[in-house]
Write a structure and sequence with these properties.
Elements (H helix, E strand, L loop, with lengths): L1 H18 L2 H5 L4 E6 L2 H17 L3 E6 L4 H9 L4 E5 L6 H6 L4 E4 L14 E3 L14 H12 L10 H10 L12 H11 L3 E7 L9 H6 L13 H10 L17 H17 L4 H4 L3 E7 L11 H12 L4 H8 L5 H27 L2 E2 L4 E4 L9 H7 L10 E6 L5 E6 L2 H5 L4 H11 L3 E4 L3 E6 L4 H15 L4
Parallel strand pairs: 1-2, 1-3, 3-4, 4-5, 9-10
Antiparallel strand pairs: 6-7, 8-9, 10-11, 11-13, 12-13
Length: 475
């Protein structure tokens, strides 16, 4: 009960912070919304843009892969009355203020020490003692600002559905199998508004759109020996379980009745135990799933996890405007284009995995890595890294290198929840290692990224290996 009360108090404090810039925003004639190019960034921007639309305010959206000094200079050159930063900005508060930008920041990344710099508003869970990696996403922070902008109480509560998509896109439901902390307040808001529902179900990706055998084939967390990565074995497993696979088409999870779903889960648990998988890992098969009630069943936008992947397939390829349109309700041309980009995205991931298999993964004492060069886009190499655990050592985090268009080296790091429970904090490790070689890094404990000069790669790897060794108590 005390924890619930403390969480509610933190939510209320952040909500009060969100009220601070409302009059300034409403009096602005030219607003700029600046956000990140991933699912959380897109949903964050869409929440704010929709709220501004409902207020009748003019705005322009801009998207960046990272908010560095070059990006900030570009933002400053726009000459707008006010800038609303979503899903980024907390690490650059001092620089934002030094440029004289009137700004409201709705973010969830660890803030850098701002010094004397103070934006018009700073909405960030870390500022009230909540973890931005697990308790609230950038979209959640944006929702608080949107609620403050609403003409009447509850006017923008339906946007909580997008906030949940953002949180799921940032994997905030993975550590405990459900959204926790401040995110649960958002779930209640969305549920009360009739925008979403949540319940316990199988946690595998593709419940709305994938044939069931494909759900099993691509399962990586937990990895299912004998099933993961083996299409024929998955089909045989389902037949042995008594599941009818196809009528006019291959059946999806949403096409199965409750008895069939229960039979599959029971069979998976038995197979997992026989394969020596621990109860703790098998429990990750079941968790909380999130359904957007206004969306059509069987489509990507119905399920929060699939929705977030659809959005990543737009923004990470330079088509953030397509993802923004989808988030703001376009279910015709914008949605069709997003689906086309999603198909391309999936093929690129397949090609990326083939490349990793061919080049191999290099092990070190406490980390492992592969270098994709310019063969995998730097915007998706992190996703490929996470998927590469099917062919990697799961006792070490995996790092992926990719060359950016600017000639820098992008580093994406991915771990597992088991490693995080053992002490892994990739955000801290990448921040320290990248900073030591003249780069920048950060993110979350289970997933983080950095940008470094190409010539310091070996030095960076040595530092990273040492830091992770200390975290995992291997030295």
């Amino acid at each position: 009960m005390q924890q619930i009360q403390e969480t509610a108090a933190k939510f209320d404090e952040l909500s009060r912070r969100a009220v601070e810039p409302v009059e300034l925003i409403k009096s602005s004639k030219d607003l700029l919304v600046v956000s990140h190019v991933d699912a959380d960034g897109l949903t964050s921007a869409a929440i704010i843009c929709t709220a501004l639309d409902r207020c009748g305010l003019a705005y322009r959206p801009m998207f960046f892969r990272q908010l560095d000094q070059t990006a900030l200079d570009e933002v400053s050159d726009q000459g707008t009355d006010m800038v609303i930063f979503t899903d980024l900005g907390s690490g650059m508060i001092r620089q934002i203020c030094d440029l004289g930008i009137t700004a409201a920041v709705a973010d969830h990344h660890k803030p850098a020490p701002p010094g004397d710099a103070r934006p018009a508003a700073h909405i960030n869970p870390h500022l009230v003692g909540a973890d931005g990696a697990t308790q609230m996403s950038g979209a959640g922070a944006a929702l608080l600002l949107a609620r403050a902008l609403a003409a009447a109480p509850g006017g923008n509560d339906d946007l909580a559905a997008l906030a949940v998509v953002g949180a799921v896109g940032d994997l905030q439901d993975m550590a405990q199998g459900q959204l926790v902390g401040l995110n649960r307040q958002i779930l209640q808001i969305g549920s009360a508004a009739g925008a979403l529902s949540f319940s316990r179900d199988i946690k595998l990706f593709g419940r709305q759109t994938r044939p069931v055998y494909k759900m099993l084939e691509y399962c990586q967390d937990p990895y299912l020996p004998g099933l993961s990565g083996n299409e024929d074995a998955c089909i045989a497993f389902l037949k042995e379980t008594g599941i009818r696979l196809s009528g006019e088409r291959w059946r999806r999870w949403v096409d199965l009745n409750l008895e069939e779903r229960a039979a599959i889960v029971t069979a998976l648990l038995r197979k997992g135990l026989r394969s020596g998988i621990s109860h703790v890992r098998l429990e990750r098969l079941i968790g909380e799933v999130y359904v957007l009630l206004a969306e059509t069943e069987g489509t990507e936008t119905r399920d929060a996890s699939e929705y977030s992947t659809l959005l990543n397939a737009t923004a990470r390829y330079g088509h953030a405007e397509v993802g923004l349109k989808v988030c703001m309700g376009d279910r015709e041309a914008g949605f069709s284009e997003a689906q086309r980009l999603l198909a391309q995205h999936r093929q690129n991931l397949v090609n990326g995995l083939k490349l990793v298999a061919e080049r191999g993964i290099t092990p070190m004492k406490s980390i492992q890595y592969f270098d994709a060069g310019d063969a995998i886009l730097d915007t998706i190499v992190g996703i490929v890294a996470g998927m590469s655990f099917q062919m990697a050592d799961r006792s070490r985090p995996i790092l992926a290198f990719a060359r950016t268009a600017e000639g820098e080296l992008k580093v994406s790091a991915r771990g597992t929840q088991d490693l995080v429970r053992s002490g892994l904090d990739l955000a801290d490790a990448l921040s320290r290692a990248a900073g030591a070689v003249g780069g920048v890094g950060g993110g979350h404990n289970v997933a983080a990224g950095a940008t470094i000069p190409p010539q310091v790669k070996e030095e960076f790897l040595a530092i990273m290996d040492s830091v992770v060794s200390q975290q995992l108590s291997r030295e």
